[in-house]
Amino acid sequence: MADVLVGLWVEDGTVPALGLEVTRTAAGVAAALGGRLTALTLGAGALGASDALHLAGAAQVLRCSCPLLARSPGEAGLRALEAAAALVRPGAVLLAADGLGRDWAPRLAWRLGAVMVGEVVRWRCEAGRITFERSVYGGKAVAAFRPATESVVATLRPGAAGPGGAVPAAPAGTDAELELPLAAGAGWPVLLRREREEREGPALEEARVVVAGGRGLGGREGFASLLELARALGGAVGSSRAAVDEGWAPPSWQIGQTGKSVAPDLYVAVGISGASQHLVGCGRAKTIVAINQDPEAPIFDHAHLGLVGDYREIVPHLTAALREGRD
Amino acid sequence: MHAVVLLKRVPDPELPPSAFSVDPETLRAEVGRTPHVLSSFDANALEVALQLREALGSLRISALSLGPAAAEEVLRKALALTADDAWHVLGDDEDLDPGQAGAVLAAAIRRLGLPDLVLAGRQSADWEAGQVGGVVAEELGWPCLPFVSRLRPSSAGLEALQRLEGGEAVYELALPAVVTVTNDAGNGLRPARIRDVLAARARTLEVLELSALAGGALGRGPARGLLGLSVPAGRARAEFLGGASGREQALELARRLRQLGAV
């Protein structure tokens, strides 16, 4: 029997979608381990997030809204998680595979003497031990880990799947403020400013249609025609890592193992060769359409529909045809 | 100022999946004959260090790699790109878990003289654990700032640009510190000059034995509990849509998308 701790960054009183998903998964893990789930909310919006977390299965919600979190989110959040873990003594700590989760996980694991597994896509539980699956080698292989330590720390990718089964909500749980004797550590990095990217249309992770471009676009201009297509489809534009490295697309558009993970109804890959590390980020799409000049491009081994040709000729006609159909 | 850059030699991640297989007995990738390269985010880390040296005017850059004899390749590459010295922790690291590798690297960093800054790729291109930078920071008792793509000198030490999925953040970074590096359009590794490549061949590497450095780190054995390593089954090949022109292909695709209810 072991309890589970989930750590969540909550900026404005609402738990982000991935945070709620991780909480529901963590509730499933806690049930499988025969323990209770504690959620620790970190950040200025920690107050007010409790109801949603209880509904997602947290028996206990701890809040930490220490002002140091805004100044040094990585270091202060790590200290808070360490304090919460000292209270809960969890068998598993689960975090979202986002910037802060990936920052905290290896260092928290080191402090707890735990093994960490990152970027988990599937979990199961046998005889009180959890097995985590993740992709490795840029998506060319899948590895399964069953850590031998008493506690584990894991980060979960969006859509991480478990054995299933309903997890009871815990609407009558308890709430407490986590009192942290938190003083800034010497030499902590200090956040000076943050720039959130403004983008047109739906967020990439939530869009029902994603149109993504890669090195085959041949230049920044190619993304202009993808934006038109995305607009006609009510979707969002993404990119491969190659296009980000070329400077044609901002890093926040990157989809793949080290970028965003999307699960739209329709994914249109334009000029993307289909490296495994990219497919890790778009493989959950219901329908994948690939447009590429090279009939041997690996993307065609993963797409449902393929068009071999010059996107400069295909995409504008496609945009026009889809617009016509809507009028 | 002194920076250590952690470099790992890995099977070329650009190789197609058809060139990749797994030994089900040893749970290791069968990559013996495939070309190997410097892990991509480590290449970005080296470039960030080189750019920082240019901005500062001077910076000692030490390259450090843990791995078998062939790891020498990535160290010589770093020397060809004007790293000042190169340190090789020689040994088979394939079965080390990231906590052990981080502890060994931290011990090596202490051995070569504590620097002001350690740079590491955010994750390696093989096992992709994304832990070594954080573990090294913990072992040294230093703060860690992950996902940095640019560093520049500031009054407090360094100013770091952090690239996250939702946007970017700027941090003031006091030293000593560990940073992990992610890719952006400005930190692709520059090519080496032929003259420097030739000069690097003649350089002597500092060699440390893994077994001598590991101390207690290896005694407990890997705790990660690797149960399985397998290649996922491929999906069926795409259905190709024909058409005499781009326009015909586009119209056919539009029709099929409507049929599928995807639009």
Q: Going across the biggest sheet of chain A, name each strand in turn.
A: 7-6-5-8-4-1-2-3-9
The count of strands of chain B amounts to 15
Helix content of chain A: 25-40%
Low-pLDDT runs of chain B: none
Q: What order do the SSEs of chain A take from the amino end to the carboxyl end, as H and E?
A: EHEHEHHEHEEEEEEEHEHEHEEH
> In what order do the strands lie side by side in the largest sheet of chain B?
11-10-9-12-8-1-6-7-13
The most extensive interface, with participating residues per chain, is:
A-B, 93 and 92 residues
Stretches with pLDDT under 50, minimum 5 residues of chain A: none
Taking the sheet with the most strands of chain B, its summary is: 9 strands, mixed
Distance between the termini of chain B: 57 Å
Structural class of chain B: alpha/beta
Outline type of chain A:
globular
Give the termini distance of chain A in whole angstroms: 59 Å
Overview of this protein structure:
The complex is a heterodimer of chains A (327) and B (263). With 327 residues, chain A is of the alpha/beta class. Helices cover 30% and strands 28% of the residues of chain A. In chain A, helix 4 (73-88) crosses helix 5 and helix 6 packs parallel to helix 9. By secondary structure, chain B is of the alpha/beta class. In chain B, a hairpin with a 2-residue loop joins strand 10 and strand 11 (167-173). In chain B, helix 2 crosses helix 5 (194-201) and helix 3 packs across helix 4. Chain B is globular and about 65 Å long. The model of chain B has no long low-confidence stretch (mean pLDDT 92). Chains A and B meet through helix 5, strand 5, strand 6, strand 7 and strand 10 of A and helix 3, helix 4, strand 9, strand 10 and strand 11 of B.
